[in-house]
Amino acid sequence: MSDKSEMGEFLRSRRARLRPEDIGLPVWGRRRVPGLRREEVAHLAGVSVEYYVRLEQGRAEAVSEGIVDAIATALLLSDDERRHLRNLSRPPRSLSRAGEPLRPGLQQLLDSMTRAPAYIVGHRTDILGWNAAAVAVFGIDFAELPESERTWMHLIFFDPHIRAITADLALVAGHIAADMRLQAGHRPDDPELRAVLRDMNERSPEFREYWETHEVNDFQYGRYVVHHPLVGDLHLDYELLDLPADPGVRALIAYTPAPGTDTARALDSLLDESSSEAKRCS
Q1: Is the CB of residue 35 less than 8 Å from the CB of residue 17?
Q2: DSSP string, 68-118
Q3: Residue 68, class by beta-carbon neighbours within 10 Å (0-12 exposed, 13-18 middle, 19+ buried)?
Q4: Could you tell me the pLDDT band of residue 5, with boundaries at 50, 70 and 90?
C-alpha cells in the first residue's frame, strides 16, 4: 500500500470517529454514515472540497505542511496522530536499514543493569539484546528463539507463554499495533517492516482487528503487569529510551518497580534466586 492510500484510509478513519457536535457544528437531519462529512472537514481546514476528496482518494500531490496541520486541527488529531499524518504526507525518506549487530557497548549497558529487566528493540519490535533480569521476569530465553520469533509482535500475538503472563493482553496488543502504525508511517522505505506487517495481518485476525482501527501512538512509558508463576504479579513501570546513534536500533526499554512495594520485594527475591541458579549452573 502506498503512503498516499494509507493517508486516505487514515483520514477517513479519523473523520468517521467525530460527530458534528464535537467541533461545534449544528446537526441537520439524519446522517447515513457516522462521522463528519468531507465538506465539513474541508470547510474547517480551509481547503476546497475537491482537494480534500483527492486527499482521501490518495490522488493529491505535494501536500504542504500548512494544509496537513490545518486538517489535523480540523480532525482534532492528537500529537502522535498529527505526526503520523505528517509522515504519510511526505515522500519516502532513505532511512538506514537494520541488520547490523548490536554494539558491544549497548550489551555492556544491559548487563550492568542487574536489578532492572531491560532489552533493546529495533524498528520492527525485534529484540536485539537483553539482560539476565529480563529473562528471569519474562521466563523466556530470548537466545533460544528463532530470529523471526524474537519480536514483541510475535510474542504478544502468538506465543502462549507470553500471552498467559501478560495481565493486560488486549491493552498491550493494541499498543503494539498502534505503535507499528506510527513506525510504518515514519519508515515508508523499510521493505522488511512492510513485509512483517503484511504477514501479521494475514496470520493474525487479532492483530488485523487492531490494525484496522488506524490508531497511532508513541508509547514512551507505562506499566506492564506480569503474572509470574514463581513470585506472583509484578507491577512494573517501563521507560522507553531512544537510541538514535545506531541506525538499526530503536530504543532501550527498562522496567522498575515502585520502591517499597510488594513487587519490589518479589522482584528482588526472583533476581536473587535467578542469580544463585546461574552460579550453580556455571
Answers
A1: yes
A2: HHHHHHHTT--HHHHHHHHHHHSPPP-PPPS-PPPPHHHHHHHHH-TTS-E
A3: buried
A4: confident
Residue 127 dihedral angles phi and psi, to the nearest 5°: -90, 110
Contact present, 75 and 49 (Cβ < 8 Å)? no
d(CA 174, CA 219): 11
For residues 119 and 134, is the Cβ–Cβ distance under 8 A?
Answer: yes
The crossing angle, in degrees rounded to 10, of helices 79-89 and 65-74 is 140
Contacts of 259 (CB under 8 A, 6+ apart): none
CA 279: distance to chain centroid? 37
Q: Residue type for 22, please?
A: D
Quote the CA–CA distance of 67 and 4 in Å, as a whole number.
Answer: 15
Task: Tell me how far apart the alpha carbons of residues 152 and 8 are, in angstroms, rounded to a whole number.
Answer: 28
Cβ-based neighbour number of residue 74 at 10 Å: 22
d(C-alpha 156, C-alpha 154), whole Å: 6
237-275 pLDDT, tens digit per residue, is 999 999 988 888 999 999 999 999 999 999 999 999 988
Helix (H) or strand (E) holding 244: none
What is the pTM assigned to this prediction?
0.77
Place of cell 543493569: 113
According to DSSP H, which parts of the chain are helical? 3-16, 38-45, 49-56, 65-74, 79-89, 104-112, 132-138, 152-158, 160-165, 169-186, 191-203, 205-211, 262-281
271's grid cell? 533476581
Q: To 10 degrees, what angle do helices 3-16 and 169-186 make?
A: 140
Q: What is the DSSP letter of 55?
A: H
